[in-house]
Amino acid sequence: MLRTNKQNLVQQSVLGTIAPCKINLKNPYLVDSTGSAHVVPGTGGITYNVAVGDSALDFEGDHIEPCVSISTPSRDTANLGTGGLSILSCIGNEARVASGMMTGTKGTVTGKHGGVEHVLIDFPPSSLEKMVIGDKIQIKAYGLGMKLKDFPDVHVMNIDPALLRKMGITEKNKQLIIPVTHVIPASIMGSGLGARHSYSGDYDIQLADWDTVRKHGLQDLRIGNVIAISDADCRFGRSIRSGSMSIGIVVHASCITSGHGPGVTIVFSTNKKSIVPRIEEKANIAEYLEIGRRRRRKIGPQNRRR
């Protein structure tokens, strides 16, 4: 069992509302890296047929967010309005519907998406039918400030202590052995690189080059996968640094525009040799938290992808 400062962490409430779907009305076209134009669904809303555990590559969309996307209705010039929701929320946190027909229904935070500043939440599929845009959702934000007592050089962020315990992380030779589905180089990371911090949002895996996709097995990438990014230093922003290692969770599906792809929210980062990834096919938060496709729900014909 990893020793943490769990007993010293603060738990606070943060509130968001289900965000509307975002598409540019005057120019809905998105141009891919080959110059082809597409009009497809994008971020936001209640997404009925995409959940953690699903393929990150197969859906006809751009930055598709699984299940429910929430944002804060208040924004000010200093970003104080979005900071609480975007930074305090952690993957694995409990969420609860606070208004509307499904008041009281509980869900689980599965990711954070930068730019649009959405927090992504998984709910039981039966509850989605009665939820509406604008419903309020409150999160018990818990995890910010977590430290690993025996690994002070590993920065921890964006993760609930309960999820940390379920990830099958072990210690050997003074290193953390972390199950992941893929190990990829920092050189293929795109949008979000250079951000000033990693305590909110995500950054994207570029998938435009199919030879690189096949080389790293990314054609099998799924939303919710735990992945390792070698030579990525995300302790104080997102940068490339030889010998560093970062661990993240895939939070949204792939994208069309150049420099974008499946988004990754960082949960661990170090510039030392403290993290050793171990390939494990089931290293996915859907499995750890028994949510998303792990619920083994039956999808009706009206929701099945054609």
Q: What is the strand tally?
A: 18
Order of helices and strands: EEEEEHEEEHEEHEEEEHEEEEH
The CATH architecture classification of the largest domain is Beta Barrel
Helix content: under 10%
In CATH, what is the class of the largest domain? Mainly Beta
Quaternary arrangement of the chains shown? single chain
Q: What characteristic shape results from the CA principal axes?
A: globular
N/C terminus separation: 45 Å
Helical segment tally?
Answer: 5
Number of domains: 2
Describe the structure.
The protein is mainly beta. The protein folds into 2 domains: 9-143, Thrombin, subunit H; 155-289, 3-layer Sandwich (tm1086 (SG structure) fold), CATH 2.102.30.10. Helices cover 10% and strands 31% of the residues. The strands form 4 sheets. It has a 6-stranded antiparallel beta barrel. A hairpin with an 8-residue loop joins β6 (94-97) and β7. The longest helix is centred in the N-terminal third of the chain and has 9 residues, at 80-88. It starts with 10 loop residues before the first strand and ends in a 17-residue tail after the last helix.
